[in-house]
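Exercise 3.2. Students should predict the tertiary structure of the chain below and write it as structure tokens, then compare their answer with the key that follows.

Predict this chain's 3D structure.
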Amino acid sequence: MSEEKKRDLEAAAFRRLLDHLRTRTDVQNIDMMNLAGFCRNCLSNWYRDAAEAEGIVLSKEESREIVYGMPYEEWRSKYQTEATAEQKAAFEENRPKDH
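Answer key:
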């Protein structure tokens, strides 16, 4: 497989992941962090890091809007719920040490 085709397939998979996360607003970021060790904010940070590696400047807000499909604060007000004590405890126990 050519590198160009591989990149195209990876990009298609990433777009599908974003679409999936945008429809699963019931899944909170803390749930993702507790189960998978990453969340929507991590994806937006990785996206921004990749852009910066290519000399493209993106703000934190811009990269989050790309991932969330809307301004982050709008997503938070519409969909984010208060984390339970259990979710917070699991996060403190399992959170990645580099965050």
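Discussion points: The longest helix spans residues 3-23. The CA atoms of residues 46 and 84 lie 27 Å apart.
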